[in-house]
């Protein structure tokens, strides 16, 4: 059985179909462009993770500063439309992050060394630059003496 889709080993081939049949990497130039795109998606994925966590943390701190808004174990939405807007934006950011995650996962399971390396490399570079911001936000929310800033530059304190 000589089926290309049942391959379970990594290759260096630059002639492959990635994600869609229309995305046929038939030349080295398109292969390199796809690797660059995957690398950038990895960096953006890590930035989005950091931004989303900061956004949700800022919302939690705002809720906590108004008395917690918890009544009998359930959340009481006293912010009205503003709370709905925050939840809607958080949902859109979450879905966008899932799309990036699935794209990067499919790059790795394409069993192509270049595509997998580009995806993992982008995640690594993005983590290097953005993970410190996540750590700073978490440290401040647990009572650190030095307030950090969110992704939009506003102080959490």
Whole-angstrom Rg: 21 Å
Poorly predicted segments: 144-157
Span of the ends, CA to CA: 63 Å
- What structural class results from the helix and strand content? mainly alpha
SS element count, helices: 3
Mean pLDDT over the residues: 77
Q: Helicity level, as a percent range? A: 55-70%
What is the strand arrangement across the widest sheet?
1-2
Instruction: Please state roughly what percent of the residues sit in beta strands, choosing from under 5%, 5-15%, 15-25%, 25-35%, 35-45% or over 45%.
Output: 5-15%
The biggest sheet amounts to: 2 strands, antiparallel
SSE succession: EEHEEHH
Put the structure in a nutshell:
This protein is mostly helical. It is built from 3 helices and 4 strands; from the N terminus they run ββαββαα.
Looking at this protein, list some descriptive labels.
two-stranded antiparallel sheet, mainly alpha, two-stranded antiparallel ribbon, 157 residues
Descriptive account of the structure:
The chain is mostly helical. 61% of the residues lie in helices and 5% in strands. It contains three helices and four strands. It has helices at residues 28-65, 81-108, 113-141, and strands at 16-17, 24-25, 70-71, 74-75. The strands form two sheets. The chain has a two-stranded antiparallel sheet. The protein has a two-stranded antiparallel ribbon with strand order 3-4. Strand 1 and strand 2 form a beta hairpin.
């Amino acid at each position: 059985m000589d089926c290309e889709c049942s391959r379970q080993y990594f290759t260096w081939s630059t002639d492959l179909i990635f994600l869609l049949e229309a995305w046929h990497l038939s030349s080295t130039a398109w292969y390199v462009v796809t690797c660059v795109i995957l690398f950038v998606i990895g960096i953006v994925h890590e930035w989005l993770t950091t931004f989303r966590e900061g956004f949700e943390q800022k919302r939690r701190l705002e809720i906590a500063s108004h008395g917690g808004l918890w009544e009998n174990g359930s959340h009481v939405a006293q912010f009205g439309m503003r709370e709905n807007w925050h939840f809607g934006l958080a949902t859109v950011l979450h879905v966008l992050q899932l799309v990036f995650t699935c794209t990067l996962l499919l790059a790795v399971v394409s069993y192509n060394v270049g595509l997998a390396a580009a995806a993992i490399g982008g995640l690594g570079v993005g983590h290097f630059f953005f993970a410190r911001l996540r750590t700073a936000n978490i440290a401040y929310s647990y009572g650190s003496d030095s307030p950090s800033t969110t992704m939009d530059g506003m102080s959490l304190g």
